[in-house]
Design brief:
The chain has about 260 residues and is α/β, with parallel strands linked by helices. About 45% of the residues lie in helices and about 20% in strands. The strands form 2 sheets. The chain has a 6-stranded mixed beta sheet with strand order 1-2-3-5-7-10, sandwiched between helices. β1 and β2 form a beta hairpin. It has 2 domains: about 200 residues, 2-enoyl-CoA Hydratase, Chain A, domain 1 (Alpha-Beta Complex), CATH 3.90.226.10; about 45 residues, no CATH class. The protein contains 11 helices and 10 strands. α1 packs parallel to α3. The protein is globular and about 60 Å long.
């Protein structure tokens, strides 16, 4: 698998998941290294504000390259597996808005890649499945990000039912926006990009950090922390100036436009 990053869209980076030599979009050792490198670049970039993960028409990602594991039983891939798990965590924590654009089949680790994104847009023909249990494995890497989106019972259903269609995935919380036709997928992605580029980059990063910190807290502890954070923000004179400008109809300095480059066929 190859992850090709198009950075010509200014603040929007488009990461396309390309099939490898076997013409399948499976996560191999090289693919994990490429993905980790792209996440490094995004974390260090002051220019990137939105990261879009997208597959080919009819396929997003089919998870780990099991055929390689079968053909090379002597190879220790524990390092690559750990790196993939770290990549999913890093996607959740990236300071940018991460959008997964799904059109077609998604299985195994590919479900994890989609679930780790902040926003998932999928076409009606997309399907989501976790075949690991059939093979005597467990979908252990993807479960932490899945359980941020759905209940334990829904995750169990996904693993034991043979997969779900896009409509069921939306009802479960795995898909945030469902479009009927593939040609509408890009239109919806661009609408989400437009709004994301109006969000304050520091606030996007702060929101993700807040959600992580709220995780282990009780409701009361979370409310107390929320009150403290809000009080600190509204007492900041600079924030009040920005809000005043916005209420008067003025654009804020972080507002940006997306001028999409010509897409390669």
């Amino acid at each position: 698998m190859r992850f090709e990053c198009d950075r010509s869209g200014g603040p929007v980076w488009r990461v396309r998941i390309q099939p490898g030599e076997a013409r399948q979009a499976v996560i191999d050792r090289d693919g994990v290294i490429l993905l980790a490198g792209l996440l490094d670049d995004a974390e260090r970039s002051d220019a990137c504000r939105v990261l879009v993960l997208e597959g080919q028409e009819g396929s997003f990602c089919q998870g780990m390259d099991l055929s390689y594991l079968v053909a090379h039983p002597e190879v220790d891939v524990s390092g690559e597996i750990q790196e993939l798990a770290l990549c999913l965590d890093r996607i959740r924590r990236l300071p940018q808005v991460v959008i997964a654009a799904v059109d077609g089949s998604v299985t195994g680790g590919g479900v994890g890649l989609a679930a780790a994104a902040d926003l998932v847009v999928a076409t009606a023909r997309s399907t989501f499945g976790l075949p690991e249990v059939v093979l005597g494995l467990l979908p252990a890497i993807v479960m932490p990000v899945l359980l941020e989106r759905m209940t334990c019972q829904q995750a169990r259903l996904l693993a034991l039912s043979g997969g779900v269609d896009a409509s069921r995935a939306e009802a479960m919380g795995l898909v945030d926006h469902l479009v009927e036709e593939p040609r509408r997928l890009e239109r919806k992605v661009r609408a989400l990009i437009k709004h994301a580029l109006r969000c304050n980059p520091e606030a996007v990063s702060g929101l993700k950090d807040l959600l992580v910190r709220l995780g282990p807290l009780s409701r009361r502890e979370g409310l107390e922390m929320g009150a403290s954070v809000t009080a600190r923000l509204v007492s900041n004179p600079g924030k009040m100036v920005q809000i005043s400008r916005f209420l008067q109809g003025e654009p804020l300095e972080w507002f940006a436009r997306y001028r999409p480059p010509e897409r390669k066929s």
